[in-house]
Amino acid sequence: MAALRSIADAVKSEIEPLLRDLGFIGEYPHYRRNRDGRADLISFQTNKNGGSFIVEIAQTSGEGVTPFWSEDFIPFDQLNVWHLDPHRDKRKRILAGPFGVLGWFHYDRIWQRIFLKNHERLRLAARGAMGKIPKIQAQFDKWHRIPN
To answer: Which DSSP symbol is given to 71?
Structure first.
């Protein structure tokens, strides 16, 4: 296996195969699936300063959506989480830490730099996010029971 050089590499190697198994299409950082007429969306956002990333999910019509900030319709094959209003729509940040206090998955903490090689830190962070997949699936299922 090639050494991981970025969090994008880690997500692609560790998480993307699982997302594919669950029916998601798309490419890093945006994934989508159409399930029973609804679009389930997952997006990964890296910290502009490096060292961490977040996972956001959303659900909307499987046909597409007109974003809250535009009059242009976005079809399903171009949708991502950021097209939905975080305050009005079915959109949520998946929290990394216990009790929902930490949203960022970190891979550049001082202890990580001391004890782990770069590719180990990236893989560890990606696997932390991968461990949230059951919670993500449960949230999609919960939203699915709520009418659009």
So the answer is: S
Instruction: Kindly state whether residue 148 falls inside one of the protein's structural domains.
Output: no
Structural domain including 93 reads 7-143
- Is residue 36 within 8 A of residue 24, CB to CB? The reply is no
- pLDDT class for 88, splitting at 50, 70, 90? confident
**Residues 63, 45, 125, 91, CA torsion sign:** negative
Structural domain includes residue 128: yes
Round to whole Å and give the CA distance between 139 and 91.
Answer: 10
When divided into structural domains, the chain yields a total of 1
One-letter identity of residue 121: R
2 domain-assigned = no
- How far apart CA 45 and CA 54 sit, in angstroms, is 5
Q: What is the pLDDT of residues 14-32, one digit of tens each?
A: 999 999 999 999 999 999 9
Task: Report the b/e string of 109-131 with b at 16+ CB within 10 A.
Answer: eeebeeeeeebebbbbbbebbbe
Phi, psi of 13 (to 5 degrees): -85, -35
Relative to beta strand 105-106, strand 30-35 is: unpaired
Asked if the structure places residue 87 within a domain, the reply is yes
